[in-house]
Write a structure and sequence with these properties.
The complex is a heterodimer of chains A (199) and B (509). In chain A, strand 4 and strand 5 form a beta hairpin. Helices cover 22% and strands 33% of the residues of chain A. Chain A has one domain. Chain A is an alpha+beta fold and 199 residues long. The longest helix of chain A has 17 residues. Chain A is elongated, with a radius of gyration of 21 Å. In chain A, the strands form two sheets. A six-stranded antiparallel beta sheet of chain A has the order 6-5-4-3-8-9. Chain A has a three-stranded antiparallel beta sheet with strand order 1-2-7, covered by helices on one side. Chain A contains four helices and nine strands. Chain B has a 16-stranded antiparallel beta barrel. Chain B is elongated, with a radius of gyration of 35 Å. The termini of chain B are far apart. In chain B, a hairpin with a 5-residue loop joins strand 5 and strand 6. Chain B has three domains: 100 residues, Ubiquitin-like (UB roll) (Roll); 81 residues, Ubiquitin-like (UB roll) (Roll); 308 residues, membrane protein fhac: a member of the omp85/tpsb transporter family (Porin, Beta Barrel), CATH 2.40.160. Chain B is built from eight helices and 22 strands. Chain B is mostly beta strands. Helices cover 14% and strands 46% of the residues of chain B. At the A-B interface, helix 1, strand 4, strand 6 and helix 4 of A face helix 3, helix 4, strand 5, strand 8 and strand 9 of B.
Chain lengths: 199, 509
């Protein structure tokens, strides 16, 4: 019944929005603390022993005898959050041998390369080992210039079918506030650095 | 001694069958053991010795399987199957057949493709609902190796036969080593409903000129029934009025048949008005007055022709309490009818297209006891094309009013979804009885560029076309937009941010 020349009730509405932003921040990807790089054979590799890919829904999917495709992307940056200077994209098929209770992975290249009888961590490490950036693409950094790496992966198989038709529920709201978008595939992305080729 | 028959058998043998092959002659005396597909030199001396020591021993499936596993453990890029060849003297030759996993597309896709299918199960529906032909195809899998591509094809075929369900495939261990059970699991899908739930109204948005608006729409579904409770806090993003309040909604999307849906919504809102709106109202006596409280009830019946097309009819009864204490309460009771179309395409060339279109008619009529008699037409279309990281969307709205429509029925443009960059309270503080709007937006990785054009005016007055453009980050829920009016007197950037749970479809109903 009052006129509303200026936006009013702002503090209450601001609280809603701040709550949303906090939830958003809570859902943001966390860094993998121990990501390192190494060079050898003319390529750059990353190592992320604390990275956990085969867990949660992915692990459940695999234990149901299904295979999971993992799409990796490794980007080299000249500065944190900067543009990608060089990158590598590789995809893998991972499955879980129900009788051996070990994992198997296939690097989707021509011809495909596969390994089996791996532990969960060994499977993750093997995938990362195939994800290389030729040192020739990093010549601009010399031996002393710092660089950063951005490692990300997606699990396209786990996108629920018919997501467009899902009814919206309280869970949908929670997902939206935590940036878990409906069309999104499970995955992570993280940056680390600085690194030096001399290392 | 290698005979041509033996060679033929080796070539034709199911090379990648389970290492724990039950076809081995348990207890038979082993004449010799050999490894095919990998040089013995590549095996560890201990493993070579253990394989060679099989000669003159009794065959033990367990022992053979353990040796096959050791070969795989030493060479994790291969799979190993064991076979034996019965000799005329009753002894057997044991052969470990080794092959790279990558040589077999099925194994490369899923390592469990090495195992033999013991049985196939259907879960979630009565098996008799599946055609005999498809059941036969499923049972034909038994005894063979799992072929992931064929299993996927069968999953799709099952979904095609029972489109109300989504089919997932699980594999579990069988009763014997090296055997597996394939389960095709049916789960009721949202596709079983021909009448979709209305888009969720939840949003929290900020417009630099208009401030914050928030709406929360909480829902629960039980079978075909859906219940929702919603709260609006100072929402001025949809209408001319700024309203706060709540609504309750119940609906059944399958009232006896999936063609028929019923819904009822009750809402109670307190209204506030900008000074510019009240001033414009004072200068326009033909427009019904502002109100302080709005109470609504909306019973609706929906008939679905198919999954894509549906027709709704019902009533929208509103009680409007006046701003001025001396005025009387007014009723805006309307008959409502709408037709809606919604379809998604996934062309083989890639990408996904979605079209949502609708026409909505509302008539305030004295036969329902309405004090305000009016007619309202609104047509709208929303199109989205997505391909990889690209998204193109286009929206069109066209509306017209006749008679004395209450303020909540009047059209407005210039908010966080329409004529972005313009402020509706500056150029059309009481909205208009005519409106058109179009928006086109292209986004790459959610970084969007858009162009809006539209006009809202009253009959008899000139229709000024307003244009705006801008950039921003727009995903399916979140947006952060910087918009600039293109034909305003001042060049200024308007900032908007927020999220909408129901997606970016503009709805001016």
């Amino acid at each position: 019944m009052t006129s509303a020349d200026e936006p009013r009730g702002g503090s209450v509405r601001l609280c809603f929005f701040i709550a949303a932003l906090v939830a958003c921040a809570a859902g943001a990807p966390h860094g993998w603390q121990a990501m390192t790089t190494s060079t050898g054979g003319g390529v750059l590799r990353v190592h992320a022993p604390s990275l956990e890919i085969i867990e949660g829904a992915v692990l459940g999917w695999l234990r149901d005898g299904r295979s999971v495709r993992l799409d990796f992307e490794l980007g080299v940056l000249a500065e944190p959050g900067g543009p990608i200077v060089a990158q590598s994209r590789q995809s893998f098929n991972v499955s879980f041998d129900l009788w051996e209770e070990r994992f198997a992975a296939t690097h989707i290249v021509t011809p495909p390369r596969s390994v089996s009888h791996l532990s969960r961590k060994a499977t993750e490490a093997w995938c990362l080992e195939q994800l290389t950036v030729p040192l020739g693409q990093l010549a601009r950094f010399g031996r002393s210039a710092p660089f950063w790496v951005r490692l990300s992966y997606r699990v396209p198989d786990l996108r629920p079918d018919g997501a467009d038709d899902d009814p919206f529920t309280l869970q949908t709201l929670i997902d939206a506030l935590s940036r878990k978008r409906r069309d999104n595939q499970p995955g992570k992305s993280v940056e680390a650095g600085p690194f030096h080729l001399s290392n | 001694m290698k005979t041509s028959g033996l060679l033929l058998m080796l070539v034709c043998a199911p090379l990648l069958a389970a290492a724990q092959d039950v076809d081995l002659h348990e207890g038979a005396l082993i004449e010799s053991a050999e490894v095919q597909g990998v040089s013995l030199d590549r095996l560890s001396p201990e493993l070579r010795r253990d394989i060679q020591e099989l000669a003159d021993q009794r065959l033990s499936r367990e022992r053979i399987a353990a040796l096959a596993s050791r070969i795989e453990a030493e060479h994790p890029d291969v799979v190993t199957a064991a076979r034996d060849v019965l000799r005329p003297d009753g002894r057997v030759r044991v052969i470990f057949l080794v092959a790279p996993i990558g040589d077999d597309t099925g194994l490369a896709a899923n390592i469990n493709a090495r195992y033999t299918i013991e049985r196939v199960e259907i879960a979630g529906v009565d098996e008799n609902r599946i055609s005999q032909k498809l059941r036969d195809e499923l049972q034909a899998l038994v005894g063979g190796r799992l072929d992931p591509a064929n299993a996927e094809r069968l999953s799709k075929a099952l979904e095609a036969e029972l489109p109300d369900y989504s089919v997932t495939r699980r594999i579990s261990r069988g009763t014997e080593a090296g055997r597996i059970v394939v389960v095709f699991n049916f789960e009721p899908s949202e596709r079983r409903f021909w009448i979709p739930l209305p888009a969720n109204r939840t949003k929290v948005v900020y417009h630099e000129d208009q401030g914050w608006s928030s709406v929360f729409d909480f829902r629960a579904t039980v079978g075909s029934h859906a219940f929702s409770v919603g709260f609006a806090g100072g929402n001025n993003d949809d209408l001319i009025e700024e309203y706060s309040g709540y609504w309750l909604r119940a609906e059944n999307r399958k009232a006896g048949t999936r063609r028929l849906g019923l819904s009822f919504e009750f809402g109670s809102y307190s209204d506030e008005w900008k000074a510019s709106t009240l001033s414009a109202l004072a200068a326009s006596p033909s427009i019904p007055p502002a109100y302080s409280h709005r109470t609504t009830a909306q019973p609706t019946v929906t008939f679905a022709f198919d999954r894509r097309l549906r027709f709704s009819a019902g009533a929208d009864v509103s009680e409007l309490e006046p701003l001025a204490p001396s005025s009387v309460t007014q009723h805006a009771n309307a008959v409502v009818a709408s037709i809606d179309f919604n379809q998604t395409w996934r062309p083989e060339s890639g990408g996904r297209q979605r079209l949502i279109a609708g026409y909505d008619y509302r008539a305030g009529t004295r036969s329902l006891g309405s004090d305000l008699v009016y007619g309202r037409h609104l047509a709208q279309a929303h199109y989205v094309f997505r391909h990889q990281h690209n998204r193109l969307r286009a929206d069109v709205l066209v509306g017209g009013l006749s008679g004395q429509a209450p303020l909540f029925e009047r059209f407005s443009l210039g908010d966080t979804a329409t004529l972005r960059g313009w402020d509706k309270y500056v150029f059309a503080a009481v909205g208009g009885d005519r409106m058109w709007h179009q928006s086109i937006e292209y986004a790459f990785r959610n970084f969007a560029y858009f162009f809006d054009a539209g006009s809202v005016w009253d009959t008899g007055n000139p229709a000024r076309v307003r244009l705006s453009t801008g950039v921003g980050y727009h995903d399916d829920s979140w947006f952060m937009t910087f918009a600039v009016p293109l034909n305003d007197n001042d060049v200024r950037v308007t900032f908007m941010i927020g999220f909408r749970l129901g997606g970016a479809v503009i709805d001016k109903r």
